[in-house]
Amino acid sequence: MAQGKAPDAGEFLGSKKGSTGALMTVVPLPSSRRPSARRRAPEIIEAAARVFAERGYHGATTQAIADVLNIRQASLYYYFRSKEVALEIVCTRGVEDFFKAAQAIASGPGSPSEKLASLIRAHILPILDRGDFVKVFLTQRQFLPNESRRRVGKWSRGIENIFETVIREGQRTGEFGNHLDARLVTLAILGMANAVSSWYGKEKASIERIGSEFAALVLGGLMVREGRSRRRA
């Protein structure tokens, strides 16, 4: 994960100061390009995600991406100017699904426990239909150049801040006990949820079941029970 001070949660929850648009701008297609090229851009990026997921950054080549699409290698430079840029786009697409789902849940209705359960389930769900993007984000983003890694890292820290804000709100309202550190709980939840992509499919468990059981595990440790101290030692 990129280092540096994490943005305030408010930046990612709809304030003008930190609109997601400012973080999302990665090699836009100029309007002068043909509409057919713009329509094919998602296909090109999906092919790049597939190759990065299968071969890793160092094993991937632009020729391999072109081969998936049955196009000339030179055609790829119409969409991204280097393999590093392609990796940044794929990583951004991988993390933005997590972020957008988390933002919608955190800003919507529900108690902190309901929101946290939904956040956990939503964090795992993209593995089903965005698996290549998720895998590349989780395992290959460390190979990005420093500036690119910082840009992608803003999304990652934004997700952390959303989880932590919901947990702190639950502690503030008394729904969650103060016996655990909200920051450490956040990192534990995300570490557990992110690991699913490495073993999903090897176990006889659906994404829905995994999400529900993870949520039950986390809430079982956080929720205030009779006789449990509300204060952290």
What descriptive keywords fit this protein?
233 residues, mainly alpha, Tetracycline Repressor, domain 2, 11 helices, 64% helix, 0% strand, disordered N terminus, disordered C terminus
Helix and strand layout, with pairings?
Layout: H1 9-12, H2 20-24, H3 35-59, H4 62-69, H5 83-106, H6 112-124, H7 131-140, H8 146-173, H9 182-194, H10 196-199, H11 207-222
TL;DR?
The chain is mainly alpha-helical and 233 residues long. The protein has helices spanning 9-12, 20-24, 35-59, 62-69, 83-106, 112-124, 131-140, 146-173, 182-194, 196-199, 207-222. Helix 3 (35-59) crosses helix 5 (83-106) and helix 6 (112-124) runs antiparallel to helix 8.
Tell me what you see in this structure.
With 233 residues, the chain is mainly alpha-helical. The chain has one domain: Orthogonal Bundle (Tetracycline Repressor, domain 2). Helices cover 64% and strands 0% of the residues. The chain contains eleven helices and no strands. The protein has helices spanning 9-12, 20-24, 35-59, 62-69, 83-106, 112-124, 131-140, 146-173, 182-194, 196-199, 207-222. The longest helix is centred in the last third of the chain and has 28 residues, at 146-173. The chain is elongated.
